[in-house]
Write a structure and sequence with these properties.
mainly alpha, about 280 residues, about 75% helix, MetI-like fold, single chain
Length: about 280
């Protein structure tokens, strides 16, 4: 065998070994990253079952005591109801405003379209604290005090880019010829939108609604500056509770929020399929 052929054979043997080593290293890095993301949530869930009246990990036993304590606390249950109400209103407002905005961004042709798109998506690039403080100063300037309404407005401003981006991604993958066919069959723009476009947007609308609801329900940075002190949402109530309480009730509430997010994502994955959202 010539030296050139021998060298080629060695290279062919070396390449699969390098590929296997690279795959192993990539798997280890991905597993470590996943552990860093999941471990804090698992620790919080484990602490929530601690039977004693202080936070301890690993827990000394298993008890649902602090889950019952959450629902026996009137202040916490009122905060949960406020958060549910606010999150629902924000979700509806984001859909009502975000879907037409996404439709105009993808299908519309008008001067300044690029600038309008940047303006609509700008809140996504701002920290929630900046939006919260801006809304607080704006409210003080126009005489609009912190309230549930201000909280809904501020969270809608903060969350609407999520809706716009998700719906835009879905709209970009739709065939515009379907709308043209509907128009050729005599349907008007409104009927075409409701009977042709909206059904195709179903996966994106469901995902946008879920993400917006979870973000509005869990958001503390915006709510801290815009919520009413007489009816604080759950994230703000937890913020103050952490400063004065060290019982596993805090972990129990956090565990319920984690499980709520997991259930919502599981429902989307089973009914819609996460891989379809960007199509």
């Amino acid at each position: 065998m010539s030296p050139r052929a021998s060298g080629a054979t060695k290279r062919r043997r070396t390449i699969p070994a390098i590929d296997r080593l690279g795959g192993l290293l990539l798997g280890l890095v991905a597993g470590f990253a996943l552990l860093l993301l999941v471990a804090p949530s698992l620790i919080v869930i484990a602490i929530s079952f601690e039977p004693r009246a202080f936070i301890s990990f690993p827990p000394s036993g298993f008890s649902l005591r602090w889950y019952w304590a959450v629902f026996e606390n009137r202040q916490l249950t009122d905060s949960i109801l406020v958060s549910l109400e606010v999150a629902t209103l924000v979700m509806l407002a984001a859909l009502l405003l975000g879907v037409p905005a996404a439709f105009a961004s993808v299908r519309g042709t008008f001067p300044g379209k690029a600038g309008a798109n940047a303006f609509l998506l700008a809140p996504q690039m701002m920290p929630g604290m900046v939006i919260g403080i801006a809304m607080l100063f704006f409210g003080a300037y126009v005489g609009f005090r912190a309230s549930d309404l201000m909280l809904v407005v501020a969270l809608t401003v903060f969350c609407i880019p999520f809706t716009i981006r998700i719906v835009m991604a879905r709209l970009a993958g739709l065939d515009p010829r379907l709308d043209e066919a509907s128009a050729n069959l005599g349907a008007g723009p409104a009927e075409t939108f409701l009977r042709v476009t909206v059904p195709q947007l179903g996966p994106a609308l469901l995902a946008a609604a879920a993400f917006t609801f979870i973000e509005a329900f869990d958001n503390v940075t915006v709510a801290l500056f815009t919520s009413d002190v007489r009816g604080r949402p759950l994230p703000v109530e937890l913020y103050y509770l952490v400063q004065n309480d060290s019982t596993p009730a805090i972990a129990a509430i956090s565990a319920m929020e984690i499980m709520l997010s997991f259930v919502v994502m599981l429902v989307i994955a089973r009914t819609v399929g996460l891989e379809r959202l960007g199509r």
